[in-house]
Amino acid sequence: MFEAISQSLEAFLNTTGPFAPLVYILLYVLTALVSVVPTPLVSALGGSILGFWPAVLYGFLGLSLGAYAALSLMRRFGRPLLYRLVSEKVIAQWEYLLGIQSVPMWGVVFLALNVDLAVMLAGLTKLSVPRLWLAAVIARMPWVILSAWLGRSFLEDGNLLVTSIVVVVLLIFIFMIMRRVLRLYLQDSKPTVN
């Protein structure tokens, strides 16, 4: 499935000509709002089509706009809808169960998961949208850089598989450490629920 999506997006970006950077940025915004196409795939395609540095620059712009749009829409429409569907007590219990009541912890979630759905969920919380936006951009930018580099490198060097496997293993190792630290932090924090 991802191969078909990748080929379709690549063909589409190739046909846009000089508008490819704008289309690339809009694809980022679209993936932030509709989490069907993963943003690392868009970054990798940008790296292979536009080049590494343009993909990183335009990826930063797209990531920034997309994260702001997702957070703002969820805060503006998602949270009021949530209050209509369930009681405030249920929402407080959900936030307690979720256990992520600080912007830095959301930053860890954004870095570890790198999925747009996490940004949308953060928009449902009571935390500051500008601070959540900054955390999302900072935490997800390494993924944009890595994906753009991989997209560009695979185009130039077909023997990059070993390097990619080493990088993925290191990322999994870092994630496992972060997961343990996150679990210990969540066990130690005791938020109050009325």
Briefly say what this structure is.
It contains nine helices and no strands.
Write the layout of secondary structure elements.
Elements: H1 2-15, H2 20-33, H3 39-49, H4 52-85, H5 88-98, H6 103-113, H7 116-123, H8 129-156, H9 161-188
Describe the 3D structure.
This protein is mainly alpha-helical and about 190 residues long. It has one domain (about 1-190). It is about 80% helix and about 0% strand. It contains nine helices and no strands. Helix 3 (about 40-50) packs across helix 8 (about 130-155), helix 4 (about 50-85) packs across helix 7 and helix 4 packs antiparallel against helix 8. The longest helix is centred in the middle third of the chain and has 34 residues, at about 50-85. The radius of gyration is 18 Å and the shape is globular.
Mean pLDDT: 80
Q: What's the β-strand tally?
A: 0
Uncertain segments are none
Q: How many angstroms separate the termini? A: 46 Å
Structure class:
mainly alpha
Characteristics of this structure?
194 residues, mainly alpha, 9 helices, 82% helix, 0% strand, globular
